[in-house]
Amino acid sequence: MQLTRYTDLSLRVLMYLSYPDRSDLVTIAEIATQFDVPRNHLVKVVNRLVHLGWVSATRGRSGGIRLGVPAETLTLGQILREMEGTTALIDCEGEVCVLRNGCRLRGALADALQQFYRTLDGYTLAEICAAPTAGLIAQMHRLVAMPASAH
């Protein structure tokens, strides 16, 4: 199983916004630059995160985004379920398969997927953003705070 780019960007945005030592709002352009991703794709991701209430947004000239919930309350399982959906790993109904009526593969894969999400439910956004990740996120924020001539 591989996460979609959409989910990957969702995780990166949430991790970047989890930095507690920054009082000003973060712009989508800033995040796009930090992660070298297209701004228009990031807008879609951020809109979804705002819709879920995980990110809060302020419009206008001095607007931006920030984490909308405490990082301790979001689990990786919750984030991935929402971003990836809970579709089966294999589509036994859409494919013509001679094993369909007696095969146990779909059940085994469904169990494995549930275990995957249960494992990720044991990790919060705050935990994955702790050291050493916290230092890397802090470094990214410090680069933004530096004057352009200091880069």
Roughly what is the average pLDDT, rounded to an integer?
A: 89
Query: How far is the N terminus from the C terminus?
Result: 38 Å
Please state the overall shape, judged from the principal axes of the Cα atoms.
elongated
Unreliable stretches covering 5 or more consecutive residues? none
Approximate strand percentage: 5-15%
CATH superfamily of the largest domain: Winged helix-like DNA-binding domain superfamily/Winged helix DNA-binding domain
CATH class of the largest domain: Mainly Alpha
- Please, how many domains? 2
Structural class: mainly alpha
Write up this protein.
- Keywords: DNA-binding.
- It comes from Jeongeupia naejangsanensis.
- This is Rrf2 family transcriptional regulator.
- By secondary structure, the chain is mainly α.
- It folds into two domains: 1-71 and 125-151, Arc Repressor Mutant, subunit A, CATH 1.10.10; 75-123, no CATH class.
- It is 50% helix and 5% strand.
- It has a two-stranded antiparallel ribbon.
List keywords for this structure.
151 residues, 2 domains, Arc Repressor Mutant, subunit A, two-stranded antiparallel sheet, mainly alpha, elongated
